[in-house]
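Sequence design from tokenized structure. All designs in this work follow the same two-part layout: the structure record, then the generated sequence. An example of the structure record is given first.
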């Protein structure tokens, strides 16, 4: 190849290289622009990701708060599900080594000798025998039919006070077409047996042949206002002035609308009232007139917090909340709280010595302070710690009062009969019906707490009230 030809070839090659470099530079510029766009997109996506992470954390926190609030509201109405206790491998019934239990033989009212004159198989005559055995059978007599009595009552004139007076026949009640025995029967079936009105009507028809409508039964219950109203108000005053009392509340529907049934109870009396609200005004009205140094045992519901009297928080609720925790910290917290509760229970059962109780109060106040000051990590343990922080020394107020309880179990037991009646009947159909239920349940549960037979107690109240109504004209 000549020199000009070689020079021409190199020029063509250089031209191609220049074109390739130009194309590469253009491609590199495009890639640089695309890279810048991707970097900008990455920055935007990173910022969006950070925003979404923050929003997700906020929503999760709100969800947790909402879940806690939902559980709190549900706990106001429904008791939490208890954990299934492990089954024990032991037979049902009486256990080996335990004393046997038998029905005691009743006092004999009558004795009858039973024998046959003829054989039940072949009808042959059978001679009397000296060999006998005995058996005791308890039975109720045949049900008596309803007795309708017409009384002709004279209107007489008193020569001393110049007033017209009339006799009151025995076992009758003024302003009531039903006798005392029937009224007692209706009250016991309704509030002790907790039967709905249609069941009461059916039972009275079947057992006594009495045709009575549900409306007539309800009207008879309404009329107890004349007989029990004064005693209901007396019980309210006695409970308010008592040095120790318990309070609780549960849901109650009236005319299909949600309401609340309130209880305040002592060891010898129980007072119920059914209201439309669960506000603190109800507790203020019920406990109006309470001595400022009296003790009220309650759960942690806010309506009881600012009352002008001493308050003992329920340990049963606290231990239940601690037991529901699943973390190791929560389980350890529950174990230590249970030990403290056992120690406190032992102290309150001892004879009350004020100096010793004050020393114990100071010691356990410091122990509660140590619980509050602990550094915890688990969420369920911290919730229990917050509860203890809110309760503070209200957990040990019972130490300073004689005969006081650490739990609100007494109120729980006293409000249960009303809750059972609610589940059976569905509540009340009118405001007057709700008031009647609260008043009559107050009488029934107070008689039970005082150990008075329900029939005898109601009969005595009806008798006294009837005599007073007759005197007042």
């Amino acid at each position: 190849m000549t020199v000009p030809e070689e020079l021409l070839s190199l020029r063509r090659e250089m031209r191609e290289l220049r074109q390739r470099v130009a194309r590469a530079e253009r491609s590199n510029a495009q890639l640089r622009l695309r890279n810048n766009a991707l970097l900008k997109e990455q920055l935007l996506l990173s910022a969006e990701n950070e925003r979404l992470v923050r929003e997700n954390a906020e929503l999760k926190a709100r969800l947790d708060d909402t879940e806690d609030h939902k559980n709190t509201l549900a706990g106001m109405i429904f008791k939490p599900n208890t954990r299934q206790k492990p089954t024990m491998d032991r037979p049902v019934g009486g256990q080996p080594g335990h004393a046997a239990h038998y029905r005691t033989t009743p006092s004999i009212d009558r004795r009858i000798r039973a024998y046959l004159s003829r054989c039940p198989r072949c009808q042959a005559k059978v001679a009397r025998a000296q060999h006998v055995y005995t058996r005791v059978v308890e039975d109720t007599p045949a049900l008596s039919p309803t007795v309708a009595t017409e009384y002709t009552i004279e209107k007489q004139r008193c020569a001393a006070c110049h007033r017209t007076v009339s006799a009151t026949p025995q076992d009758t009640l003024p302003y009531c077409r039903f006798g005392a025995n029937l009224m007692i029967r209706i009250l016991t079936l309704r509030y002790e047996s907790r039967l709905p009105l249609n069941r009461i009507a059916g039972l009275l028809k079947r057992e006594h042949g009495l045709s009575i409508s549900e409306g007539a039964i309800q009207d008879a219950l309404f009329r107890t206002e004349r007989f029990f109203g004064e005693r209901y108000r007396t019980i309210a005053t006695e409970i308010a002035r008592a040095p120790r009392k318990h309070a609780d509340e549960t849901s109650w529907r009236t005319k299909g609308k949600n309401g609340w049934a309130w209880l305040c109870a002592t060891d010898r009396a129980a007072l119920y009232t059914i209201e439309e609200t669960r506000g603190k005004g109800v507790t203020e009205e019920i406990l109006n007139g309470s001595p400022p140094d009296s003790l009220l045992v309650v759960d942690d519901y806010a309506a009881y917090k600012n009352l002008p009297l001493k308050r003992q928080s329920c340990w049963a609720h606290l231990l239940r909340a601690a037991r529901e925790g699943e973390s190791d910290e929560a389980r350890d917290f529950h174990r230590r709280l249970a030990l403290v509760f056992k120690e406190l229970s032992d102290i309150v059962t001892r004879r009350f010595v004020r100096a010793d109780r004050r020393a114990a109060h100071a010691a356990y106040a410091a122990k509660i302070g140590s619980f509050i000051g602990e550094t915890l990590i688990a969420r369920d343990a911290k919730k229990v710690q917050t509860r203890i922080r809110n309760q503070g020394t209200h957990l040990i107020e019972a130490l300073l009062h004689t005969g006081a309880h650490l739990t609100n179990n007494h109120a729980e037991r006293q409000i249960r009969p009303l809750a059972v009646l609610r589940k059976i009947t569905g509540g009340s159909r009118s405001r007057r019906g709700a008031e009647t239920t609260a008043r009559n349940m107050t009488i029934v549960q107070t008689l039970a707490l005082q150990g008075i037979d329900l029939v005898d107690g109601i009969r005595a109240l009806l008798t006294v009230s009837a005599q007073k109504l007759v005197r007042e004209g």
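The beta strands are 155-157, 164-166, 244-254, 257-265, 270-275, 295-298, 310-313. We note this feature because it recurs in several other targets discussed in the main text.
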